[in-house]
Amino acid sequence: MKKIVIAPDSFKESFSALEAANAIEKGFKGIFPDAEYIKVPMADGGEGTVQSLVDALDGTVKTVNVMGPLGESVSASYGLSGDRKIAVIEMAEASGLSLVPTEQRNPLITTTYGTGQLIADALNEGVEHIIVGIGGSATNDGGAGMAQALGVKLLDSNGEEIPYGGAALTNLESINVDDLHPKLAEVTIEVACDVDNPLLGEQGASAIYGPQKGATKEMVQQLDKALAHYANVISQQLNKDVKDIAGAGAAGGLGAGLLAFLDVRLESGVTLVLEATHFTQKIVGADLVITGEGRLDHQTIYGKTPIGVARAAKMEGMSVIAIAGGLAPGHETIYDQGIDAAFSLVPGITTLNDALENGLEYLELTAKNLATMIKVTAK
């Protein structure tokens, strides 16, 4: 083995992608000490994307105070690449469900205003490229709050700004974009979106994701009607039809708002991360690519990190091994998508707490065992 590329996602609730990569490297180095190791911490646009890209791009994290989902002040962070040309934002940092106590969840009033503030701060930093991961939201406002934070005026019949929250969209009569943040015209914005829900209807933002944000059946209907009205006003006044675009319903319709008010592309999260980290260039000449995440199951093939890594590696004809915290029923589908072999890091029957607490040690041991197997079979 002369060159090994290590590109895992984070192992949720246990350790980051960089920590995972370090443990795998340590395990393999015990057997192949002279190999070149390239570590590329990965993510798919969800939780951990900022940290993974900061680690991969030698970047920094900036923390600012913004408006939370219920209008309160929250501390939210986003990433800046080492050359400060790329900003990586997770909308959940400012507008996420985890910021709202269960008993206070109410998508009629929650707002994405804080997400817009994060975008504005990145623009003021002078970045050239912004990646926004949308997922885990507490909101159902169609990205209206985000737009308001960036200078868009959403006005009612009296010419007054409508309040924050999904319910207020019913009162929207006119949109004024004259004061939209001027630096938006100077940047490329890509949106990491791994769901294809439309904005409206039975598969839309309100029906599918509203209940987990506190919406009753009645509220789901109210929110869907409000978003329909919002989409109609956008279509009439901005000449943009967002209601039927795949992914428009992501993050409570934030996908639609980004499409309507910003010049964005909705893309697979892992694809964006692969591009931002220059993964294809880094794997040139590699003998093996190692990836992984907390769990491999039947959903892994739908846009998750290991499959994105495997597909990119297979384009270069490389072997791919995945290591996961667990291999769930149905994980066998990954073998048709570029992964040659998959292994669980758990050494035997154990508790969840043990697996989480000792995961890095188990991961290093599993990596060492794999390296030993590769060395033995190569003889």
From TrEMBL:
GO MF assignments: glycerate kinase activity
A Pfam family: Gly_kinase
EC top class named in words: transferase
The keyword Hydrolase is assigned to this record: no
Keywords of the record: Kinase, Transferase
TM spans (from-to): none
Keyword Transferase appears in the UniProt entry: yes
Gene3D superfamilies: Glycerate kinase, domain 1, Glycerate kinase, domain 2
EC assignment: 2.7.1.31
Domain of life: Bacteria
NCBIfam families in the cross-refs: glycerate kinase (TIGR00045)
Family of the protein in this entry: Belongs to the glycerate kinase type-1 family.
Protein name: Glycerate kinase
Organism: Alkalihalophilus lindianensis
